[in-house]
């Protein structure tokens, strides 16, 4: 049985061992905590710097270690300076100095005096972002797929024609071709031919003629239309009368085929200004004043030429013969009696005429006379054989002058009536019944009486 004293000594010894063991465990725990705290502090600082910079920065190069730190990392080996021996046989190695504990950076930051915070600097774009921006600027833009489809749709597609190898043109292409022709005529002063389509009055009271050329509007002033009616213009009244007559003649020429030379064009509005007078002077010089290889004029007395009908009235027509104009009366139009020239001639017709006389005084003053009936053969005497005395024939009244009625019979014979049995007086263009009393061989007409009026022209 243990005594009380031995029991107390055993308890004291056990307590000292327990305290020593606890102290050693506390020291080891403190050392491990110190190492963990330093590493975690370094990691927390790196994360904080990364957050401040806005992106992960490359790892910085490690700072050079001092001799003591290098020695501690090499296991306590330090190269002595001054050629001192490392270890002697008699000298005992000194125990390595205890490794100083590195204070955590977090702790230093906390111990540092407070500094006023500066406003955060503007975030700079990274190098990657700058390179991407430069590449996007230098790279050509690629059109989107819908744009490609739209471009393909806008590409010209050939017109599908009925014929296998046929060609078709759009209205725009036709207009471009015609405008190109007008432009070339303007440069070369080549004559063009169009139709007189209108007569207009400008805001300042000037009269202009509108010529239609293949769908384009050509403007010709009145003074360039070469309408010479003669007469004096000394007084204002005479001038007004002359202008009125010129406007009337110009109105009667509507629909006529005329030549002109382009004097000016406007490509933006596609407007054309021309002159008929220049075209007529050019033709006069060529056909009336110049001679051919044989030394003869191209137009001379007795020559049959082609002419254009530019105006038609009841008893007269006006023609243009290669730059020179003249009027032809109804009696010179045909061997048959014509009551109204409109029945046989129209504006724009091309007819054959015989030049009876030519006066070549100057380029501006060329006067000609022509007729139409001399081109054809006179069949009056042959037709008289078809007529018998005391016979009746139907005909139409062509004219009534001083009580004498002129009739054109249906068989082609000219007849003259001095009296009428109908209570009504015959008028022009009336259908009548004509009785032949005699035949005038010298004049080539039949003489008789109008028995009745078949139909009046009211």
Percent strand: 25-35%
Order of helices and strands: HHHHHHEEEHEEHEEEEEHEEEEE
What's the alpha carbon Rg, rounded to whole Å?
A: 62 Å
- Main pleated sheet: 5 strands, mixed, barrel
Helical fraction: 25-40%
Q: Give me the count of strands.
A: 15
Strand-pairing-aware structural class: alpha+beta
Please characterize this protein's 3D structure:
The protein is α+β, with helices and mostly antiparallel strands and 458 residues long. It is 31% helix and 26% strand. It contains nine helices and 15 strands. The strands form three sheets. A five-stranded mixed β-barrel has the order 1-2-3-5-4. Strands 8-7-6-9-10 form a five-stranded antiparallel β-sheet. Strand 9 (350-360) and strand 10 form a beta hairpin. The longest helix has 50 residues, at 4-53. It is elongated. The termini are far apart.
Key words describing this protein structure:
single chain; alpha+beta; 15 strands; 5-stranded antiparallel sheet; 458 residues
Sum this structure up briefly.
This protein is of the alpha+beta class and 458 residues long. The protein has 9 helices and 15 strands.
SSE order and pairing:
Blueprint: H1 4-53, H2 67-73, H3 105-111, H4 127-138, H5 145-154, H6 171-188, E1 192-201, E2 207-213, E3 216-221, H7 236-252, E4 257-266, E5 271-275, H8 276-289, E6 304-312, E7 316-321, E8 324-329, E9 350-360, E10 366-371, H9 380-384, E11 392-401, E12 404-409, E13 414-420, E14 431-440, E15 445-455
Parallel strand pairs: 3-5, 13-15
Antiparallel strand pairs: 1-2, 1-4, 2-3, 4-5, 6-7, 6-9, 7-8, 9-10, 11-12, 11-14, 12-13, 14-15
């Amino acid at each position: 049985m243990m005594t009380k004293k031995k029991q107390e000594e055993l308890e004291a010894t056990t307590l000292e061992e327990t305290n020593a063991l606890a102290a050693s465990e506390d020291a080891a725990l403190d050392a491990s905590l110190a190492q963990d705290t330093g590493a975690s502090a370094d990691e927390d600082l790196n994360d904080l710097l990364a957050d401040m910079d806005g992106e992960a920065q490359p790892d910085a190069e490690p700072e050079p270690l001092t001799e003591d730190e290098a020695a501690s990392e090499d296991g306590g080996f330090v190269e002595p300076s001054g050629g001192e021996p490392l270890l002697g046989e008699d000298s005992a190695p000194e125990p390595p100095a205890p490794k100083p504990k590195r204070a955590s950076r977090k702790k230093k930051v906390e111990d540092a005096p407070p500094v006023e915070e500066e406003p955060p600097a503007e975030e700079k774009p990274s190098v990657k972002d700058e390179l991407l921006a430069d590449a996007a600027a230098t790279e050509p833009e690629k059109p989107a797929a819908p744009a490609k489809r739209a471009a393909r749709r806008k590409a010209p597609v050939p017109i599908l024609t009925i014929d296998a190898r046929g060609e078709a043109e759009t209205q725009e292409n036709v207009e471009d071709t015609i405008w190109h022709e007008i432009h070339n005529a303007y440069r070369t002063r080549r004559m063009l031919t169009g139709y007189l389509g209108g007569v207009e009055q400008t805001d300042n009271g000037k009269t202009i003629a509108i010529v239609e050329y293949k769908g384009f509007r050509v403007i010709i002033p009145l003074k360039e239309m070469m309408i010479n009616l003669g007469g004096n213009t000394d007084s204002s009244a005479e001038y007004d009368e002359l202008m009125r007559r010129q406007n009337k003649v110009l109105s009667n020429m509507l629909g006529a085929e005329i030549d002109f030379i382009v004097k000016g064009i406007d490509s933006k509005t596609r407007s054309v200004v021309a002159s008929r007078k220049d075209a007529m002077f050019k033709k006069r010089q060529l056909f009336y004043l110049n001679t051919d290889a044989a030394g003869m004029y191209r137009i001379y007395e007795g020559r049959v030429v082609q002419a254009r009908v530019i105006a038609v009235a009841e008893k007269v027509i006006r023609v243009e013969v290669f730059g020179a104009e003249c009027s032809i009366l109804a009696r010179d139009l045909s061997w048959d009696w014509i009551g109204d020239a409109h029945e046989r001639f129209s504006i724009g017709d091309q007819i054959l005429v015989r030049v009876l006389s030519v006066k070549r005084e100057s380029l501006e003053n060329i006067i000609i006379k022509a007729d139409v009936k001399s081109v054809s053969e006179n069949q009056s005497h042959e037709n008289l054989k078809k007529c018998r005395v005391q016979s009746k024939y139907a005909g139409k009244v062509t004219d009534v002058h001083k009580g004498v009625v002129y009739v054109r019979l249906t068989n082609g014979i000219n007849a003259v009536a001095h009296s009428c049995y109908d209570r009504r007086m015959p008028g022009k263009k009336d259908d009548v019944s004509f009785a032949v009393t005699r035949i005038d061989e010298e004049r080539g007409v039949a003489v008789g009486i109008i028995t009745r009026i078949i139909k009046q022209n009211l």
